Amino acid sequence: MCISGTCDNRKISAAQPKQLRPTLPRAPVQSRQPITQRRTKAYKTIEQAKSRYSNGPFSWKSGIMFVATCGLLVWYFEFEKERMQRKRIAEAAKGVGRPKVGGTFELVDQNGKPFTSEMMKGKHSLVYFGFTRCPDICPEELDKMADMLDMVEKKAPDALLPIFITCDPARDTPKALKSYLSEFHDKFIGLTGTYDQIKDLCKKYRVYFSTPQNVKPGQDYLVDHSIYFYLMDPDGDFVEALGRQHSPQQASAIILDHIKDWNDKK
Fold first, then answer.
1. Radius of gyration for the chain, computed over Cα atoms and rounded to the nearest angstrom
2. Is 7 annotated as a binding residue?
3. What secondary structure letter does DSSP report for 216?
4. What is one term from the GO cellular component aspect held by the record (predicted)?
5. Confidence band of 190 (pLDDT split at 50, 70, 90)
6. Disulfide: which of 17, 50, 151, 178 matches 252 by Cβ 3.0-4.6 Å?
């Protein structure tokens, strides 16, 4: 039952179609490329991609630089460690109760002039004991001493005094020393003296030497002796003994290091 035509109005409104809201056109959905395609898109060829990723994040050049840097650091720390150790040994050698190496002496040089231990002061000295008729070891060590002196002279001119002291004073006269040492270096100083003077000095330097007994005049013989270079500081105190295991390069570096330490203390 309808009142005031209400039912008719509902029928009319239901029969009319609803108006749709206007809608915006949507952009077409693009399909995403696979991950593998996106990664290789920057390379023109497969070979380029392989070359890029075969090197990894570091190139072989950066690897070499890294290894070289590590090597230099290791060398530096080892060098500093040895330098400080040598410095401690040199300081300890001056302490009370330590065996003293070196001492006072009065000898004669290759020119026949007096030479005393006081004349060593003011410079570092490199002292070697040997004899002029030594067939092999002494010439080798004196060649080495000449190389050491030249290397030191390049960086510290006139800072080192090279001294050769004979263990065979009976045959090594000043004239014999002068002729012999001129074959190695013009700055070498050769020293000789009486047998008792040389024996006393060898004891002071802790140098062992021996000559054969019952040697007849004019008879040839060899002298057994210690093989060391004794480095002394400008005060005449013992610093370090350099042996045959040191090359001229190694020995000269050690000497220069001690010279530098001495100059830094001034």
1. 44
2. no
3. P
4. mitochondrial inner membrane
5. very high
6. 151
Location of structure tokens 């109760």: 97
Q: Residue 2 pairs with which residues in a beta bridge?
A: none
39: left (phi over 0), alpha (psi -120 to 50) or beta: alpha
Q: Which run of H or E residues covers position 109? A: strand 106-109
Burial 70-90 (b: 16+ CB within 10 A, else e): eeeeeeeeeeeeebeebeeeb
The CA distance from 226 to 52, in Å, is: 64
192-207: per-residue pLDDT in tens? 999 999 999 999 998 8
Q: What is the pLDDT of residues 104-144, one digit of tens each?
A: 999 999 999 999 999 999 999 999 999 999 988 899 999 99
Q: Provide the β-strand partners of residue 114.
A: 108
Question: 93 or 141: whose pLDDT is higher?
Answer: 141
Residue with tokens 């800072």: 159
pTM of structure: 0.64
Would the annotation count 185 as a binding residue?
Answer: no
The whole-number pLDDT of residue 5 equals 47
138 carries a ligand binding annotation? yes
Residue 152 structure tokens: 């030191």
Rounded CA-CA distance 55/52 in Å is 6
Alpha helix ranges (H) inside the chain: 6-15, 35-40, 46-54, 60-93, 137-155, 174-181, 195-204, 248-265
